[in-house]
Each structure stands twice: as C-alpha cells, then as structure tokens.
Amino acid sequence: MSAGVDDLVKEVCLEIEKRWEICFLEIGVDGDHAHFLIQTVPTYSPSSVVQRVKSVTAREVFARAPEVKRKLWGGEFWGKGYFVNTVGQHGSEKVIAAYVKGQGRERDYHVLHKGQMALGL
C-alpha cells in the first residue's frame, strides 16, 4: 500500500462507521496488509463485519483510485483470509490492541487512525 491508498482506506473505514454500527478503534497498515481493531454490536457476526469492511473498502478504493486495481496481482485488493479475535464483556481490549500493534514491529507499521469507543456497548 502507498500513503495515498492508506489514507483512502482510512477515509472509507470512517465512512463505514457512519453507515453501520462499526467503530474502528485502530487502523494500522504494514506495507502489504492492514490491521483493524473494531468494536461493534453483538448482533453482527465477526465474518459479516469482515465481509462488509473488505467489500466496501475494496469497492471504494477501486472506484476512487482505479490505478490500484491494475497494479495488483489478480486485481484483488484483499486476500481471501483474515484473522478475527473477539473480546467478551470480561475480556481485555488492551490485549488485542497490543497484539494489533505488535504485528507491525518487524516492519514499517503505521497507525492511521486511533478512534474512541463510541458504541456504548
């Protein structure tokens, strides 16, 4: 990802917050992948949140920066896989935040957005 694409992904994620009950507590990128720390309502399944974030961001990045699709191998913005971990009422959001931040230490990790808990869960 380039700085321009990073900023575009952040912008689209913040637009997603306005449309659905999804709050991005942290958005970070590490060259060839992204990390999201997301808070959402319990009625959304983790897979539906991932599907929504991946599909909306890909569609918007390709629409706003069509040159990105031409540069990608196979024309796909996101890979097929993902990692999800959940935090229950008695879990620790700080542990997952530390994990997300720790993923980029071996590379050039950039925090693009540091949000606030906004859903009142």
Q: What name does CATH use for the topology? A: Alpha-Beta Plaits
The tally of domains stands at: 1
Overall mean pLDDT stands at 79
Q: In CATH, what is the homologous superfamily?
A: Transposase IS200-like
Strand order of the largest sheet: 2-1-3
Compute the gyration radius: what is it? Answer: 14 Å
User: What percent of residues are in strands?
Assistant: 15-25%
Span of the ends, CA to CA? 33 Å
Helical proportion, percent range: 40-55%
Q: Tell me the name of the CATH class.
A: Alpha Beta
Instruction: Encode the helix/strand succession as letters.
Output: HEEHHHE
General shape? globular
Given helix and strand content, the structural type is alpha+beta
Low-confidence stretches: none
User: Main β-sheet: number of strands, strand sense, barrel status?
Assistant: 3 strands, antiparallel
CATH A-level architecture: 2-Layer Sandwich
Enumerate how many helices there are, as a single number: 4
- Number of strand elements: 3
